[in-house]
Structures are given as structure tokens and as C-alpha cells.
Amino acid sequence: MKASHFTLILGSGLLAGGILGWSLKPQPQPDQTTPTAEVVRHPRPAIDKKTSARSAFVDAELLKIKANQFSDAANFADRDPAELQALVMALLRNSDPIMGLDPFQQSTLHQIILALARKDRDATLAWIDDNFTGKARFNLYQLIMGEFMKDVPPGEQLAFLKSKGFDQKAVSEQAGLLMANNLNKTMDIETALLLLDNLSPDKDGPRRGVTSYFEPGFDFARFAEATATNAKANGNKPPECYPMNFFEEWAKAAPQSAVDFYFKNCTGKDALKLPFCEIDRLLTGVKAGINHDDYVVWYGQTFCHIYQN
């Protein structure tokens, strides 16, 4: 099965970092403050066959993972959820405390989590809620959403995260990911504005630049004005993620409009810090949209007019 765009993005960074910093929920510890009056010895309970089989499965899989051997995906699909959950926790406990999971371990963990979610997505999310916090919990949600919600409209995806109690930082990260369009989709103006409204500002400029694909007839001017309004409202801080090809694509579609916007908003002492709004990018877009002779004429007329005013 072809990997989804979400999975490809998550694969490189989803599980980086050591397990000791992985935001596992702490397990309750026995009360050590109250002394016992006496030690009562009970007969050793009979060995639970299910527990024994689960332990054997986990041990066998850990040996395979250590040897960089993939289990057949069907093997995970046929296992009981409790076995897969135990394997996830064992894999994390046995990872390097400093370096975390290596790429093979990450890939295996993805496979296990998705096998769990295919059995019962809601139950898997509830299990994640019970066992993980912070960034680790969010990363696992992203993995599952990338598999099961890739065709859900962006607004519903963001609403889903908010309903699960994720903070603005997580919502903004997801909005930036959705701005990349899953490679095979184009973005309409309403979706673009929705994502822009859910992105956090970044004082140093966008930490992430994505390549977006805009639907035919996309209202570039409206999105540019919304970006400018957003930056002004946030103390001249641009969104933390932005389509790095936006101004080039606008210049291809409507060169004069794009350049006029640039000189109105991105130059002079009151210039806005708009992401990837640079004259070189605009001119590259203009060149790509018209033939050379027309470009020479347009360039001369445009900049002559600008310098006269």
C-alpha cells in the first residue's frame, strides 16, 4: 500500500527523542508510607495462559525488531489488541534512552499502531489518551489521522483535535501540515483562509515552508490581504508556516497585482514581514507566466512607473 503523505512527513520526526522524554503517563505507585503490620503469604496464583502467550509474543517480536526483521503485517492484524499494546510499551521501554527509536523501530511502531487502529480506531485513541501525553500523544494522533482522516475536510480535522483537548501549538502544527495539501489535492481560498486563521504567529518568520497547490482561479489577492491583516494583528509577526511558493504562483497568474501588493506592503520603513514575499520570487513567477519579450516590456513599464511615483 502506498504510504500517505502524512505518514511520509511523520516518518522522519514522529518518534525522535529518547523514550525517557516521550511523555508516557506515569503509572500509579504503591503507597510506601503506611507500614504493614505483618506479612501475609498467599499461594502463588496459577499462570494466566493469555498473559503467558502475550509475553511470548512480545519477546519474540522484540527479538525480530532487534535483528531488523519485519513481521508480516498480517501477523499484527491477527493479534489481540492487548498483545499489540503490550508490544508498543515494551518497544518503547527497550529503546535507547538518549537516541530513542531508530528508523526501523519507528517504522515498526507505526505498523503496530495502525494495526491497532484498524481493529478499533476509537479504542486505540482512548488507549493513547490513557498512556501518552504532550507531543508523543499528538504525534500518534497525527499518525492515525493521516491514515483514517486524510479525506476529511481540514476544518473538521482541526475541530477534532480541539475536541480532544489539544492546544493551539498542536492545532497550528496540523494546520501547517494540511497546507501542504497531501500532494494530490489543490487548495481553495476558503480552506486557505481557514488554515491561516489557525496558524500561530512566529516572530522570526515561518519555521516551516510548504509547497501548496492552488486550485484554478484561486483568489491570490484575497489570501495576500488576509496574510497582511494577520501579520498586523500579531505585531508584524508572520504565521509560523506558509506556502513558500505562494507569491511565485500569484505572479504567474496576475503579475501586476502581485508586484503592486509587494511594493505596497513589503517595502519601506513600515514593511510587513510577510513570509517568502521577496522581489526575486515574484519576478521568477512573472517570467514563468509570460514569454521573454512580453516580460521585458512588462518589466520596463512596471519599474519605470514605480520609480516615477
Description:
- By secondary structure, the chain is mainly α.
- The protein folds into 2 domains: 1-22 and 54-150, no CATH class; 152-309, no CATH class.
- The chain contains 15 helices and 2 strands.
- The protein has helices at 5-13, 49-66, 73-77, 81-93, 103-119, 121-131, 134-148, 154-163, 168-178, 189-197, 220-233, 246-253, 255-265, 279-289, 292-308, and strands at 208-210, 241-243.
- The protein has a two-stranded parallel ribbon with strand order 1-2.
- It is elongated.
- Mean pLDDT is 81; it is low at 1-21 and 34-42.
Compile the SSE list and pairings.
Elements: H1 5-13, H2 49-66, H3 73-77, H4 81-93, H5 103-119, H6 121-131, H7 134-148, H8 154-163, H9 168-178, H10 189-197, E1 208-210, H11 220-233, E2 241-243, H12 246-253, H13 255-265, H14 279-289, H15 292-308
Parallel strand pairs: 1-2
Helix pairs in contact: 1-7, 2-4, 4-5, 5-6, 5-7, 6-7, 8-9, 10-11, 11-13, 12-13, 12-14, 13-14
